[in-house]
Design a protein that fits this description.
With about 260 residues, the chain is an alpha+beta fold. It contains 4 helices and 8 strands, in the order ααβββαβαββββ. The strands form 2 sheets. It has a 6-stranded antiparallel β-sheet. The chain has a two-stranded antiparallel ribbon with strand order 1-2. A hairpin with a 2-residue loop joins strand 5 and strand 6 (about 205-210). Helix 1 (about 1-30) packs antiparallel against helix 2. The longest helix has about 45 residues, at about 55-100. The radius of gyration is 20 Å and the shape is globular. The termini are far apart. The relative contact order is 0.12.
């Protein structure tokens, strides 16, 4: 009964998160249109006067709303992951009881770290429907997510190859959660320019396997997205600017120098 309630709650949270993502996409599209203010562009001209080509109060309101949506998105994502871990714990407890009843001494609770549930898809770009029982099945592979895509540029290689805002990265090429993520991600991207990199992501509770190819395009960098790096040690998130975005656009970040 607990498992069923958790599944229902998690599906509802996924639907709320999808609605947040849709609103975030709409705001980002408006702010990032040609000659627009972008997400963090100056609201004054070169002489220090307010820009006359944009509606400054509206821009400020939309940026503020986007910040609120991101906070809500992070909160809901954390709750979804918490529920999934609980579902996994319920499954492990059930398996453990069955094993004891059958006098089998082999333990099954080897996955006790912070995890997400991964449902393998049949092929690249296949998605497990979020409303299906498979999407919430606890008979799944367990793996850690290590970053969440926070910004992605339209028409960028990342967008064209299938990545979307809010995608949770579980595996990027040979990189999975662990130590020295920044250096490993940078190396993985640089050494694979022009070559497809297999990526495993979580999206709305489903696992998607796809490929992205770092390559030059009309924008900056090789892929064109930002993400938040999940800090497995401190349980928090820090901003990460991939080498796939031009580091000169990321002076606000503390890690840009590691990705030059």
């Amino acid at each position: 009964m607990v498992g069923a309630n958790l599944k229902a709650e998690t599906i509802t949270l996924m639907e709320k998160r999808s609605a947040l993502e849709a609103e975030m996409d709409a705001i980002i599209s408006r702010l990032c249109q040609p000659d627009g203010p972008s997400l963090s562009g100056n609201l004054v001209d070169s002489e220090g006067f307010p820009r006359t080509d944009i509606d400054i109060p509206v821009v400020r309101a939309e940026r503020r709303r986007l910040s609120e949506l991101r906070n809500d998105h992070n909160f809901i994502t954390d709750k979804i992951n918490e529920n999934i871990q609980l579902l996994h714990s319920v499954r492990l407890s059930s398996v453990s009881s069955s094993v004891k009843d059958s006098d089998n001494g082999a333990g099954s609770n080897s996955q006790n770290s912070s995890v997400v549930i991964v449902v393998p898809s049949a092929s690249s770009h296949d998605i497990v429907p979020r409303d299906s029982s498979a999407a919430m099945d606890v008979h799944v592979i367990v793996s850690k997510l290590f970053s969440v895509i926070d910004e992605i540029t339209d028409a960028s290689p990342a967008a064209e190859d299938g990545l979307q805002l809010g995608d949770q990265i579980v595996k990027f090429g040979n990189v999975e959660a662990g130590d020295n993520l920044l250096g490993r991600l940078a190396t993985e991207g640089r050494t694979n320019q022009g070559h497809a990199i297999p990526v495993v992501i979580m999206r709305q509770g489903a696992t998607i396997n796809l490929s992205v190819t770092p390559r030059p395009w009309q924008g900056r960098g090789l892929l064109g997205f930002y993400c938040m790096l999940v800090d497995a040690i401190f349980g928090s998130c820090s901003w990460l600017c991939f080498l796939f975005m031009d580091w000169r656009t990321c002076l606000r970040l503390k890690v840009f120098s590691q990705l030059q």
